[in-house]
Amino acid sequence: MAFTFQINNDVKFKHDEKLLAKAEGFRPEIKKERIHPARIVEVIEDPLKLNGVGVTESDKSIDKIEEYGLKRNDKMILDFGDHRVGTFKIHIDQTGSPMDAPLYMRIKFAELPAELAAESKDYEGWLSRSWIQEEFIHIDELPATLELPRRYSFRYVELKVLDTSPKWQAVFSDPMVVTETSADYSGFEPMRFEDPELQKIYDIGVKTLADCTQDVFEDGPKRDRRLWLGDLRLQALANYATFDQTDLVKRCLYLFAAMTTEEGKISANVFVKPENVPDDTFLFEYSLFFISTLYDLHQAHPDEELIRELYPIAKKQMNITLKMFDENGKLNPDENYPVFVDWSNDFNKDTAGQAEMIYVMKQFIELVKVVRDSEISMYEKKLELITDYAKNVLFRPEKNLFATAWDEYNIASQVWMVLAHVMSDEENKSIMQTTIQELFPVKNIATPYMYHHITEALFVSGWKEEAIALMKSYWGKMIDLGGDTFFEAFDPNLPDYSPYGSTMINSYCHAWSCTPVYLIHKYVL
Ligand code: RAM
Questions:
Q1: Which residue has the CA at smallest separation from atom 8 of ligand 1?
Q2: Angle at 163 between CA 158 and CA 165, to 5 degrees
Q3: Which of 67, 162, 286, 457 has an alpha carbon 20 to 30 Å from 470's alpha carbon atom?
Q4: Does the C-beta of 220 come closer than 6 Å to ligand 1?
């Protein structure tokens, strides 16, 4: 089912000031560092890189940058050597005759060379074009230091002079990014592997996580630059395996907990600037993953007081979701509260949604035990009913696979049922074997988010070699295509895929793709 914009203007939200104050108390310090470009590059055709675009070192030297005068339509691309998140500053002067007209220029920021080759005037996607990282600027007097107020996410900066005048040229010097992150490297010991492929995947995963670790766990520093619950759940797991900044996870949980709807439904994402505002967007499992994130935090760093404090929020959400199940334990999907699973809409998500509920209910019951809620048996009975429906109706023994409502057998259904441990370990191993035989190689899955779940399902069901192979081929392919960080959306069969109708808006540093750091930490060693 397609999920685009949800507009729910009539929904009323709470603002629990006490919980918001706690979120504020855990606001992290943003660390800054000045970085200068490593070289000047030019865009080239490169069939091995994303969308066939790469870069090569220019014959211009970065050390002599102030010797190059740029006139109408001239451009220069600065390469900052790695992915950076921060603000940009450059000094501009002129050479030649007096400045008889303003300087008019475009500055474009790109995470990957493919974005340098794309022109924003051609953009026809359904998300706002305002996400495209470029600025058109007039400067009346030179010399001047141009300090852009916005934060950008990039490795490359293209300076294009749209016009000077035939009498003079623009001269640039001292370009610099002041990077921003709240990731704390001080106590962090990166893991070391003999396998160089694994090392690269791990290192890039850590970098992806760090660049998304800001005032909250952002989904992506280029876009949407906000806190999404589905992303948070995975970021938090990766965080425990790396920087282990528990306070930031708490901050994010408090933000969601403080701003539910009046009924207690949890938003899919929240904004924190200029003030805390929940988005009127709701996704079935994102709401539920508040419970998972709380459970995972308690696993990583037991904190009974926090569980007691946030349990009422988790319970309300659980009760709201339980109403979506009928007397037989079947999920009645609601298109206004869609099951997400992946950006691909090429498969039915009902069975995956049923499994996600089982996955979360098991974690919820552990929280029920922590707080000793007397309603425990009601939840256990509901879990049994919903699980029985999955086992007796959705599972097809003759196929050894779970079906969806329309008798479709897809990877997502198997993966989530395995992650939810609906069947025994032995049965799970055999279901994943059938999945590998019948449904692999993976097709029509568009995000590292779903590839993460496929990989984890292989690990938990005893297919370790297959899991590592999938991780290497999928995340490794993003590296081969030129990624310095991992992408938001990536279908290896359709490398130029975008959920939004244009890759210009895709984010190439997206936190939900950083999970190899967690998977490697948990299952490989
Ligand atoms: C993308 C966002 C976010 C994700 C949603 C569902 O648009 O960037 O990462 O959680 O999809």
A1: 224
A2: 140
A3: 286
A4: yes
- Kindly give the distance from the C-alpha atom of residue 443 to the centroid of ligand 1, in angstroms, as a whole number: 20
Provide the CA 257 distance to its chain's centre, in angstroms: 21
The reported pTM is 0.97
Beta carbons of 202 and 168 less than 8 angstroms apart: no
Q: How far is the CA of 453 from the centre of ligand 1 (A)?
A: 16
Give residue 272's pLDDT: 97
Strand pairing category for 53-57 and 152-163: unpaired
> Given the structure tokens 């019948």, which residue do they identify?
438
| 506 touches 489 (CB < 8 A) | yes
What phi, psi does 415 have (nearest 5°)? -60, -45
Which three-class secondary structure state does DSSP give residue 23?
Answer: helix
pLDDT in tens, 472-486: 999 999 999 999 999
* Residue identifier of the C-alpha nearest atom 9 of ligand 1: 219
Could you read off the pLDDT of 186-236 as tens digits, one per residue? 989 999 999 999 999 999 999 999 999 999 999 999 999 999 999 999 999
Asked whether the beta carbons of 461 and 431 are under 8 A apart, the reply is: yes
- Indicate if ligand 1 lies below 6 Å from the C-beta of 230: yes
> Before 224, cis peptide (omega within 30)?
yes
The single-letter code of the amino acid at 363 is: Q
Q: Is the dihedral of CA 390, 230, 82, 131 positive or negative?
A: positive
